[in-house]
Amino acid sequence: MWEAFVSEFQQSFIYEDRYKLFLDGIGVTIKISILSAILGILIGFLIALCNLSKKKPLNVIGKVYTSVIRGTPSVTQLMIIYFVVFASIHWEKWIIASIAFAINSGAYVSENIRAGILSVDKGQTEAGRSLGLTASQTMISIVIPQAMKNILPALGNEFITLIKETAIVGYVGLMDIQKAGDFVKTATYKPLFPLLGTAVIYFIIIGILTIGLSMLEKKLRASDER
User: Fold this and answer.
1) Confidence of residue 216 (pLDDT cuts 50, 70, 90)
2) Any alpha helices (H) in 53-141, and if so which ranges?
3) Cβ partners under 8 Å of residue 177, min gap 6
4) Dihedrals φ, ψ of 189, to 5°?
5) Across 94-121, average pLDDT
6) Contact indicator for 77, 100 with CB cutoff of 8 Å
7) Is 90 exceeded by the pLDDT of residue 174?
8) Contact 40, 106 (CB under 8 A)
9) Residues 155-180, buried b or exposed e (16+ Cβ, 10 A)?
10) pLDDT category of residue 224 using cuts at 50, 70 and 90
11) Residue of 129, 143, 136, 74 whose CA lies nearest to 102
């Protein structure tokens, strides 16, 4: 029994240096997640401003974008972006996948940013305008800095969700953590260790991020109490 257990472990991770597939997969997952998060925040910020805008065309664009993205599966969006929108553009696969995830994440980030901005007391906006600042100057200099304390924890949670969402990049031929596990499972015909290894890797990455977010939230609460 024990020998079979050890043999299965070796087949999954040691033979043919299969552990390297998981290491490479971690790199792909992290690259996609970081680029997607950065682009997603930029997109989310713009869409949040559209949703808060009093100009009807901008407001409609924001609402339609949010509704469409949140109302369709992320895997469908990924495949449309990869196989249709970027079909004739020869960029690296991970960059195209990052753009697809950024577009998806932007819809959710926009709601977090919008809620954070709305959480700031209206008196702050009125104070900025009374000092002679324009609406955009008031937003950038006064409202957004205060809203960030409410937005940052939500953005952290969205980043965690984004990392788990990237597990579908195998659909476009990328060898991420999940795809590495699937490859080893297919090669060995033994699903236990490849799937368990995949789950443990995601758990460790998410655990580290969760600890980091908890530390950030404590610092933000400490600054509010001063």
Assistant:
1) confident
2) 56-70, 74-80, 93-118, 122-130, 135-138
3) 22, 25, 26, 28, 29, 167, 198, 201, 202
4) 60, 25
5) 91
6) yes
7) yes
8) yes
9) bbebbeebbebbbbbbebebbbbbbb
10) low
11) 74
Cα distance between residue 158 and residue 70, in whole Å: 14
Architecture per CATH, 2-225: Orthogonal Bundle (1.10)
Place of tokens 């700031």: 120
Listing DSSP states for 151-185 in one string gives HHHHHHHHHHHHHHHGGGGGGGT---HHHHHHHHH
d(CA 17, CA 4): 19
Q: What is the pLDDT of residues 26-55, one digit of tens each?
A: 999 999 999 999 999 999 999 998 998 888
Least confident of 30-44, 109-123, 141-155, 197-211: 141-155
- DSSP, collapsed to helix, strand or coil, labels residue 88 as coil
Q: pLDDT grade, residue 119 (50/70/90)?
A: confident
Question: Which residues are CB-contacts of 127 (< 8 A; sequence separation ≥ 6)?
Answer: 142
Distance (Å, whole) CA 6 – CA 172:
33
Look at residues 119, 106, 107 and name the one whose alpha carbon lies nearest to residue 148.
Answer: 119
Q: For residue 113, give both structure tokens.
A: 């940013």
